[in-house]
């Protein structure tokens, strides 16, 4: 039997954590060691399903399982920074950080710096990059099949009713969740850069239209790419009664590519080779145990982490890549804070990711043990 090169503990047993665990269970080179959640029933459900020990205290979990060399941080977004820094500093484990990785760029910078000082690794999660349609368009851009990008457009039309936000105190808060761009739309913000290169400046308007939450559920923006191409972004979770579309299109000097479907899972138009559309589309609905929107990308991500550990092949989402996506995300919020002024990616917005001790306390696991 192959000896696993990646031994993983999961902190946070919500919906997407089950997605992580299911893909890990399918791998020969990775092994799920243990799981933890503050809600005992969630941890015990994972324990029963995946046959691993369950904890409600991640400090106790990591002390009991020194063989777990990597920790997947799958807690509320606003807790990622605190949990990641704590796991690295206190327990000396590398980390996998779910989207949006960190709420603020400076948190990412601090985490990467700490990892460097301790000889640890940080693996950001942006799984939509692995979708077949996204990979085909990326290859086409690299090969010049589409020519120079002239226009890019993003459309996210999903449904998140009030009951979704009422499920947990962190949802819909600017401190721990953000709105449609930080939670649901972060993958599109990332794909703007991944496919189109750096964005030079943005002008954004945000509204909260379909629910009573602190953050936005709708954002519309115009953007100028570093290449001088132009584009637009429309993202909303105020669509009713269902999720309808998550798409990205590119008008190039030689052709058009449109990625669509419920989760950027279909190559709908590809004028350089229309026959490529069927081969580079995939169905996410009804994937047993793996979700309708998340797709297959987490499994490919874990394979890349294994390749890094086993063969030294660089993990594809590098530090500056992660920081670039967070800085672009914050540029949209800074522009909205400035009534749509044109803003270049750079500093963090005032409100997104601001401290909120009342919410943090709900998801914090204290540890009184001495730090070595």
What do these coordinates show?
- The strands form 2 sheets. The chain has a 7-stranded mixed β-sheet with strand order 8-9-10-7-11-12-13. Strands 3-2-1-4-5-6 form a 6-stranded parallel β-sheet, with helices on both faces.
- It folds into 2 domains: about 5-125, Rossmann fold, CATH 3.40.50.720; about 130-280 and about 320-335, Dihydrodipicolinate Reductase, domain 2 (2-Layer Sandwich), CATH 3.30.360.
- By secondary structure, it is of the alpha/beta class.
- It has helices at about 15-25, 40-50, 60-65, 80-90, 105-120, 130-145, 160-165, 185-195, 275-280, 295-310, 320-335, 355-360, and strands at about 5-10, 30-35, 55, 70-75, 95, 120-125, 150-155, 200-205, 220-225, 230-235, 245-250, 255-260, 265-270.
- The model has no long low-confidence stretch (mean pLDDT about 95).
- Helix 5 runs antiparallel to helix 11 and helix 8 (about 185-195) crosses helix 11.
- The longest helix is centred in the last third of the chain and has 19 residues, at about 320-335.
